[in-house]
Write a structure and sequence with these properties.
Layout (H helix, E strand, L loop, with lengths): L16 H7 L2 E2 L1 H4 L7 H4 L3 E5 L1 H9 L5 E6 L7 H15 L3 E6 L1 H8 L3 H18 L7 E4 L4 H11 L4 H8 L7 H15 L12 E6 L3 H14 L3 E6 L5 E6 L7 H8 L3 E5 L2 E5 L4 H14 L9 E5 L25 H10 L8 H7 L7 H10 L3 H12 L5 H27 L8
Parallel strand pairs: 3-4, 3-6, 4-5, 6-11
Antiparallel strand pairs: 1-2, 2-11, 7-8, 8-10, 9-10
Helix pairs in contact: 6-7, 6-10, 7-18, 8-10, 9-11, 10-11, 12-13, 14-18, 16-18
The structure holds iron/sulfur cluster.
Length: 432
C-alpha cells in the first residue's frame, strides 16, 4: 500500500509500522531504554518512531546544546491532541533543550484564510496560554511566523533551494495550489531550522515532536538543511578497501577547502572541489572543523533536524478526533463538568453484557476511556497496568473506569484552567 501523508488533510494511519518501511522512520522503543527519565508517552509507546533521535539523546547525556521546536496552526480550539505536543516540548525544555514554539499564522492565513488579527487572538488564547499553564518556561522562545524577521529571511533563502516538483512530490501540490501555501511550507522549514542560527548559538541537534502526519515537513526540511550546507562529508573507500572521508563542495569560497585541510590533524589530499581525509578517527572533530570554516565563510551548517512521532488519540465516540465533531474531543477551555459528562458518554471496549465482560474481558485496546487514562490522566505505570489487566481479565467493569476518568478529567481541567488565568498575567515574561 502506498501511504500518502498529508499535514493539512485528515488522515487515518491504521498501521504505524508501515511508516518504518516506507519512510525510514525508526522505532522509538530501541532508544527509549537509554533515556534517563523518559516521558510517559515514550514509556507507553505513544511516541512510536523517530528520525535521528540519537543526536538528542547524546546531547542530553553529555549536557551539550540542543533545541526542541514545534508549532501550532491557529485555527481554533486547543484540545488534548495539542496538549500532547505541548507536553513533549516542555519535557525537552526541562531536559536542557532550548525551546522554540512557533504560531503558524502564515500557514493559517494561506491554507485556511484566517485573518492576521484572528490568528493572533487564537494563537495566544488557545495555544500560548495553555502552553504556559502546562509549564513552558520563559527562557524558551514563543513567536508568530509573521512577526519573525529571522524566519521570513531564512524562508526566502530556503525557497531558493526548493522547486515546485519537489514540493508537489512531498505535499501533492497541484497547478491549483496557491503560491502562499507553498511559501508556508517553506516557512515551516525555516521555523525548524531557526534554532540553529548564530543568534541562538549556531548549529546543534534540534528535535521536532510531531504527529506522524507531519513527516512530509521533516523530509523537506532535512533535504533543505543538506542543500543549504556549504560542504558535504562523505564516507568512502579506495580500491584497497581503505576507508576515508571526503569533504566536498560545489560552491566553496576559494581557499576554504585548503583551510579545512590545514586545521585537521590527519593526512589530507586537496583536489578541485574536494579534499580527502585519511586516518580520521574522530568524526565529530572533522564535523566541527568543517562547520567552523563554513560559518567563518558566511555559510550555513545546519544539522538535519531530528523528530519524534506520536500516535493520535481516537475520538471519544470512536473513529477520528475532529474539531468539526465537538463530542469527539475535549478542549482545554471546556467546562470541566461538561467534559466529565462527555467522558461518561465515551465509547468503551466493553462487551454487550456484564456476564460477557466477566467471561471474555473488556477490549482496553479499543477503548477511548482507557486511552484517556493512558495518554493523559494516570501517570503511574503500575496503576495503568493494573487497570489494563483487570479489564482484559474480566475483573473490571466500564462504569468504574468511566467514573475514574471523568473525575480525573474534571480535576485536570479545573486545575489547568486556574493555571491558564495565572498564565494570562505572565504573557509579558514571554515577550508577548
Ligand atoms: Fe475500557 Fe475500562 Fe471498559 Fe476496559 S473496563 S473496556 S478499560 S472502560
Amino acid at each position: 500500500m502506498n501511504m500518502k501523508l498529508d499535514p493539512w488533510g485528515s488522515v487515518n494511519i491504521d498501521d504505524y509500522s508501515k511508516l518504518f518501511d516506507e519512510f525510514g522512520i525508526m522505532p522509538f522503543e530501541d532508544i527509549c531504554s537509554e533515556l534517563p527519565d523518559p516521558h510517559r508517552y515514550m514509556r507507553r509507546k505513544i511516541i512510536f518512531g523517530h528520525r535521528s533521535y540519537d543526536l538528542i539523546k547524546d546531547a542530553m547525556k553529555n549536557k551539550e546544546p540542543f533545541s526542541v521546536m514545534s508549532g501550532f496552526m491557529p485555527t481554533g480550539g486547543g484540545h488534548l491532541g495539542h496538549k500532547m505536543v505541548m507536553e513533549e516540548i516542555i519535557w525537552h525544555q526541562k531536559m536542557g533543550g532550548d525551546a522554540f514554539v512557533g504560531i503558524a499564522d502564515r500557514e493559517a492565513y494561506s491554507v485556511r484564510g484566517i485573518s492576521w488579527e484572528k490568528c493572533r487572538q487564537i494563537g495566544i488564547e488557545d495555544y500560548i496560554v495553555s502552553l504556559i499553564a502546562l509549564g513552558f518556561e520563559p527562557d524558551g522562545h514563543i513567536y508568530f511566523q509573521s512577526g519573525s524577521e529571522n524566519v521570513k529571511d531564512l524562508a526566502f533563502e530556503l525557497s531558493a533551494k526548493a522547486n515546485f516538483s519537489e514540493l508537489s512530490a512531498i505535499y501533492g501540490f497541484s497547478g491549483e495550489t496557491n503560491v502562499a501555501h507553498m511559501v508556508s511550507a517553506i516557512t515551516q522549514s525555516a521555523d525548524i531550522l531557526q534554532p540553529q542560527l548564530s543568534e541562538y548559538g549556531g548549529p546543534k541537534p534540534t528535535v521536532i515532536p510531531v504527529g506522524a502526519d507531519q513527516d512530509p515537513h521533516m523530509r523537506l526540511t532535512r533535504g533543505l538543511a543538506h542543500k543549504m550546507n556549504m560542504f558535504r562529508i562523505e564516507g568512502r573507500e579506495d580500491k584497497d578497501k581503505n576507508k576515508f572521508f571526503s569533504v566536498r563542495s560545489k560552491a566553496a569560497p576559494e581557499g576554504s577547502l585548503a583551510e579545512i585541510a590545514e586545521r585537521l590533524p590527519w593526512d589530507t589530499k586537496l583536489f578541485e572541489g574536494h579534499i580527502d581525509v585519511y586516518g580520521a578517527d574522530d568524526y565529530n572533530k572533522l564535523l566541527e572543523t568543517v562547520r567552523e570554516v563554513e560559518i567563518e565563510n558566511g555559510g550555513y551548517a545546519f544539522v538535519p533536524p531530528s523528530s519524534t512521532y506520536h500516535r493520535f488519540m481516537s475520538g471519544l465516540q470512536g473513529g477520528k478526533m475532529s474539531s468539526s465533531i465537538p463530542d469527539s474531543l475535549i478542549s482545554l477551555k471546556e467546562d470541566p463538568k461538561l467534559a466529565a459528562k462527555k467522558v461518561k458518554r465515551a465509547k468503551t471496549g466493553g462487551r454487550v453484557s456484564l456476564e460477557e465482560q466477566k467471561k471474555l474481558g473488556g477490549e482496553a485496546d479499543k477503548c477511548s476511556v482507557y486511552e484517556l487514562l493512558m495518554f493523559h490522566l494516570v501517570e503511574d505505570d503500575n496503576e495503568l497496568a493494573e487497570i489494563y489487566d483487570e479489564c482484559v481479565g474480566g475483573k473490571r467493569m466500564c462504569g468504574t473506569c468511566k467514573a475514574l476518568a471523568s473525575e480525573l478529567m474534571e480535576e485536570f481541567l479545573t486545575d489547568h484552567q486556574e493555571k491558564r488565568e495565572l498564565a494570562k498575567d505572565r504573557l509579558d515574561d514571554y515577550g508577548l
